[in-house]
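Workshop exercise sheet. Pairs work together: one partner reads the sequence aloud, the other fills in the structure field after running the prediction. Swap roles for the next sheet.
Pair: D.N. / O.F.
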Amino acid sequence: GSGGEGSLVMGGGWRGGIPAPRGSSGSLAPPPPLQRQLVSTRRQLGRIADWWGKYGFIDPDEPVDHPSAARHGGKIFLAIEDVQDEIEGVGSLVSYFVY
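Structure field:
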């Protein structure tokens, strides 16, 4: 698809799509916590701002209310392990949970 919404949990050099890791469910429910604590149980929206192969950053539509939110200019860190569905790349709209 083009510009579709990818699901995930939290530039330059990017080419191609961001694949979901094998075994990901594609579920819209938050994944079980992995020694992380949810900041909010409400899904957030944003766009992939940067991607470097195995990690990148989301530019959130709304600022996150958290003491660490100012890190990285307000962008949210994203690891490939947090991706649940394939994302088309930089600029893609995504929904996510903040940990």
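Discussion prompt: The mean pLDDT is 72. What would you look at next?
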